[in-house]
Amino acid sequence: MQSVDRAVSVLEILAQRGEAGVSEVAAEIDVHKSTAFRLLGALEARGLVEQTAERGKYRLGFGIVRLAGAVAGRLDVTQQGRQVCERLSEEIGETVNIAVLQEHYAVNLYQVRGPGAVGTHNWVGQLTPVHATSSGKILLAHLPEQERADVLAASGLRKLTPHTLTARTKLEKNLTEARGRGYAVTLQELEIGLHAMAAPIRSRDGEVVAALSASGPAYRFTEERIHELAPLLIKGADEISRRMGFLG
To answer: IclR-ED domain location, by residue (predicted)?
Structure first.
C-alpha cells in the first residue's frame, strides 16, 4: 500500500508543478532517488507519466487523459441527463434513474424520485444485477455478443425472486425483444412488487453508454402502463443522447 500511496503522490506533484525531475520527486516524497526513479519508471510504463525532451524531467502522460475520460463520460451523462430526469419523474410519476455498466453490475449514478414514489430507497451508487434490472438488460442488449456472454457468465444469473430470468435462452430472447422495441422491462425480477423499464443512452459515436430507467410499485406501475409510457422514456433517453453529441 505504501508504494501505491507514493505513486499517487508522484502524480499529484506532477499535476501541481507541471514537470519535475527525479531528485525533486524524491525530495518531495522523502525517498531515495533510486526509489523515485523506480516509481516514475512504473508510471511511465503505464503511460501515466512521460519524460520531456529534457532528460530527467517528467510530466503527466496521456494515460491520465484516458482515465479521466472514463470518469468524465459518467459525469457528463449525469449532467446532461439531470433536467430530463426531473421532467420525466413528473410526467411518469415514478422514480427515474441513470445507470451505467460496471463489470457485471448496473450502477446507478443519478436518481429523481417522482411525486408518487413509495418509500425513500436511494439507488444511487448501488450495484444491481444486470440480468434482473431494466437498466442492466438494456445495457446487456447492446453489448457485442462475446462481451455479453462474458458479463452474464460473471454475473452468475442468480435467482432473486420467482420471476427472475436465469435461463440463458429465455434471457437472450428477452434481450433481443428489448433491443428491437427500444426498451427493456423487468416485472418483479429484482424485488417482489417492483416493476421497471429502461431505454438506452448513446454517446457521440452511437455507443450505448448508459440507461435511463423508470421504476415503481407493481400495483400502480403495471405492465400495461409501462408499455403505454415507454415512448416518453425513449424520447427522454434520445434527448440525453443528443445532448451527449449523438446525431443519429
So the answer is: 63-246
